[in-house]
Structures are given as C-alpha cells and as structure tokens.
Write a structure and sequence with these properties.
Number of strands: 0
Order of helices and strands: HHHHHHHHHHHHHH
Largest sheet: none
Radius of gyration: 20 Å
Distance between the termini: 21 Å
Low-confidence stretches: none
Number of helices: 14
Number of domains: 1
C-alpha cells in the first residue's frame, strides 16, 4: 500500500471517528434535555402512565425497522423463546430505573436528576467487582469516592441531609447500572435493534398497566402533555438510541463512555435555560467533582483505547 493510500485511510478513519463522536454528543444532549420534559410532567402527572406511553411510542416507532432486519436476515439472532427471559429481565430493570427516575423528578431538579443518574458510570465497575469478581483499577475506586463526595455537595449543599428526590434518583441509578450490565451481555448474541424494541415494549406495557390501575385519574393530565410523550418517546428513546448505535459502531469505548457521561452536564444546562433552575456554588463544586469521578471510572477504557 502506498503512503498516499495510508494517509487517505487514516484521514477517513479520523473523519468517521469524529462523526461518531458528534453523534454520541447529540445523544448526550438529547438525553440530558429530556430531563426538562420529564420534570414538567412529573410535577403534575402520573409516573407510570407517562413512562408507559413514552416507552411504547419509542418501541413502536422502532418496530418497523426491527422487523425489516428480520426480513433481511441479520447475522445476530432475533427475539425467540430462548432469549425472551433475558429481554424480559432487562425490560423490568428499565421499568424500575425509569420509575425511580421519574418519581425523583417530582422532588428534585432536572440538573440534580441528571447528575445523580450519571452515577451509574461509577456504579457499574463497582458491581462488576463485587458480584462478577472482575478486578478494578485503583482509579475506579477513587472515582467512586469522588462521586460520593460530589453527590453529597450537589444534593445537600454541604449540609447533612439527602433530599427525597435525590435519594430516589440514587436508587434509580443502581437499576440503570444493572440495566447497562445485563444489556451488554444480551447484545452479544441478540440483534441490537430487536432487543431494544423488546425491552421498550416490556417496560412500556408494565408501566402502562400499573398506571391504568393506580393513576387513571391523571390520564387526562398525561394526555395534555402529549408533546412531552412525543419528545421523550420519539426523540429521546427512538432517535437517541439509533444515534447511540450508529456512534458506538465506530467510536472507541472510551470516547462513548466519556461523551455519554456529559448527559449530566446537558441536564443541568437545560434545567437552567428552560426551568430557571439555579445551583449554589457548593452544588456547582459537587457537579464538577462528580464529573471528575465519572471520568476517572472510565480511565481504564481510555488507557486500553490509547494502547490499541
């Protein structure tokens, strides 16, 4: 291969990586801004009805594309009886994480919710070490410590208390971490798009069933927020997932993890712009410390990416 060909291949690879990183940055912005819509609905409408409708909208929007992959014969296996229990488990984890997140948004700000949800980046390696016996680097433990310190400052402003909404978001982050872990295992042998539609439909149907049983009185209120259902369903779930898949085909794991962790920053920024949510200096410091902790937790992936 001539030097000119090598240069051309290198330039193409850099361009593709840049495009992938920009796609992931768009995902972080979409997911972060979605906290504003979720916050507005959480104050007035039922948790489960809203989650049920938005995940069903996202799942049904992607269903035709997933069905077309069956017809074209994808390399990975599609949904069947053998892998359905795994899809059901991940869908229930998604349902639980989304429920705690939406419940927390009744009592905390979009910015707080975004940052605390982002703690799953730190919780994942901790769970892998404790339950799957996967050894973690010292930077992971340091990142976890910084994340806890940052969470304390963000949620309490330096006082010894943890807000109700922040506590609910923290529980939700635990389930988001489990969701990511089990998702990573499932997609190794299952078509990603079909898997996504499956888990969204499970989450949506379970949420909607509970909502109709216990929140029927708020159905009209939820319908009034049809724009929020459309945005979080079509844009946050549908488009966000699609862009994530496109970006992660090319972007190294370190790029993806670090860029997606910026969802927390976009959530705080969107809360400030659209909802007038303000952070005290102590809370801003907490946000910064948490972000450092998130990045430290991903430093191993960054080191591997550099060696590769």
């Amino acid at each position: 291969m001539t030097p000119s060909n090598l240069t051309g291949d290198f330039t193409l690879a850099r361009r593709q990586r840049l495009q992938a990183d920009l796609a992931l940055l768009a995902v972080a912005a979409i997911w972060g801004s979605a906290f504003v819509a979720q916050r507005l609905v959480a104050v007035e409408a039922g948790i489960y009805l809203f989650n049920g409708l938005r995940f069903l909208v996202g799942g049904l929007a992607l269903a035709p594309l997933a069905a077309s992959r069956v017809l074209t014969g994808p390399e990975m296996a599609g949904l069947n009886r053998k892998n359905f229990p795994g899809v059901l488990l991940v869908g229930l984890l998604l349902f639980t994480g989304a429920a705690f997140q939406q419940a927390g948004l009744k009592y905390t700000t979009a910015g707080n919710a975004g940052f605390i949800t982002g703690l799953y980046v730190v919780i994942i390696p901790l769970f892998l070490a404790l339950f799957w016996r996967q050894r973690q680097r010292w930077t992971t433990w340091l990142g976890a410590l910084l994340a806890v310190i940052g969470l304390f400052l963000l949620s309490t402003g330096g006082q010894l208390r943890l807000g109700r909404g922040d506590a609910l978001e923290l529980v939700g982050a635990v389930f988001w971490a489990l969701h990511v872990i089990f998702t990573g295992r499932m997609v190794q042998h299952l078509d990603v798009l079909q898997f996504a539609v499956g888990q969204y439909l499970v989450c949506g149907l379970v949420s909607l069933s509970i909502g109709l049983a216990f929140e029927a009185q708020s159905l009209s209120t939820v319908v009034d927020y049809g724009w929020a259902i459309a945005y979080t369903g079509l844009i946050s779930v549908g488009l966000g997932y699609t862009l994530q898949a496109v970006g992660q085909r090319v972007a190294p794991p370190a790029d993806a993890a670090i860029i997606l962790s910026l969802e927390a920053v976009f959530a705080a920024l969107a809360g400030w712009i659209f909802l007038g949510e303000m952070l005290t200096p102590e809370q801003l410091l907490g946000c910064g410390i948490m972000l450092v902790g998130m990045l430290l937790a991903q430093s191993e992936a960054l080191a591997v990416s550099k060696r590769a």
